[in-house]
Amino acid sequence: MPSSRLTDAPGAARADAPGAARTDDPYAGAAESRRTTEGRVYTVTGGDWDTVVGGVEDLDDERIVVNMGPQHPSTHGVLRLVLELEGETCTEARVIVGYLHTGIEKSLEFRSWTQGVTFVTRMDYLSPFFNETAYCLSVEQLLGITADVPERATVIRVLMMELNRIASHCVWLATAGLEVGALSAMLYGFREREIIMDIFEMTTGLRMNHAYVRPGGLAQDLPPGTVEKIEDFLAIMAKRVDEYEGLLSANPIWIRRLSSVGCLDLTGCVALGVTGPVLRSAGLAWDLRKAMPYCGYENYEFDVPTSTDADCFARYLIRMQEMRESLKIIAQALDRLRPGPVMIGDKKIAWPSQLALGADGLGNSLDHIREIMGTSMEALIHHFKLVTEGFRVPAGQVYTAIESPRGELGCHVVSDGGTRPYRAHMRDPSFVNLQATPAMCEGGMVADVIAAVASIDPVMGGVDR
Questions:
Q1: Window from 83-87, 198-202, 300-304, 359-363 with minimum mean pLDDT
Q2: d(Cα 306, Cα 286) in Å, to the nearest integer?
Q3: Over the range 267-287, which residues count as b (16 or more CB within 10 Å of their CB) and which as e?
Q4: Is 185:170 a contact under the CB 8 Å cutoff?
């Protein structure tokens, strides 16, 4: 690692020596270049590196600063950690984000309200249905149509979100297990996730980035055979979660690797705004499905698992239990499914929702095209204007929060009365929860940093939206 202490290292170029680095070169300091037979070689570093290492110049030689990243350690995206180490102990941890920035929030200002769904679904790409639902609930509240959304659409939203919660936790188990050496957990987690991905593809035509939840309802109804496929999954997954726990919960290596690691008590969680499994592992049963119900969650029977151990092992146990609770909610949602529309009846808002999947899997079957073209010229013109220009949303602002697999996912939307958002901002739980990284890691072993970050389960697509 380049730092001021490396200036006198063997082979390093001195500032006053022939061939030393030019001071006007933006990519090299006095100690960061050298001549070779191939020409001058520069060591390119982050622009903030000199500032970081400058703070430890006068410290003991045993204390060093290292980059952990930018890389992908159980973060589902690119994260950079700058760690100050004294031996094997992490004395300071700094979280640096922005390597996956997509500008989604700004892009929403240049698209219609419905087109915005195709952007937000890509933020936390491990739980796209939650992004879509939070955004659409906000738009529906601005429109004043929350109570008009068909019951079947609301039940299917719950169905998709809970399947998505299980899929997200499966990826967490797979990647977190892989990072600490539990290779079998990685294989099993992705195996079960594939079943859910097949259900999503069958329902929406896509494995990810579905744009399935729309303002006023859904893009289309469940295709034939979906309910049966979900019922088969319920029978399989209940046994698989038991297998996960049978493999890991009493495993002495797994227990020693996660117990008393990455601890963050309730006071720390509340002070930092941490939500989700990390908060519940500290003993607070805060779940927005119970505390501030939406999508009819008040009508479902399920528990909110908690622990008081506040460590990585407690977060593992909570996620296992949450998968079981999601299975209970899915079974209840299937019982609540009744025939009916999946899009609001107001034709000034409703996009077409009876889109039988065509051969290309995109919902533009020939039968649907014939229906649109053959209804009337006025209907065709209205359909064209609705899709190209979009509907208008009354001026105002609203904040809607839901419980994603990582915690409170909030959507703050501002309308100026036009056909596109004036401003949209997401309160992503991964962004807020990452604040807990220093509190979890400082004072612990450097080897435990990965386990602690993995227990937060951050998705950088949501952080850098």
A1: 359-363
A2: 9
A3: ebbeebbbbbbbbbbbebebb
A4: no
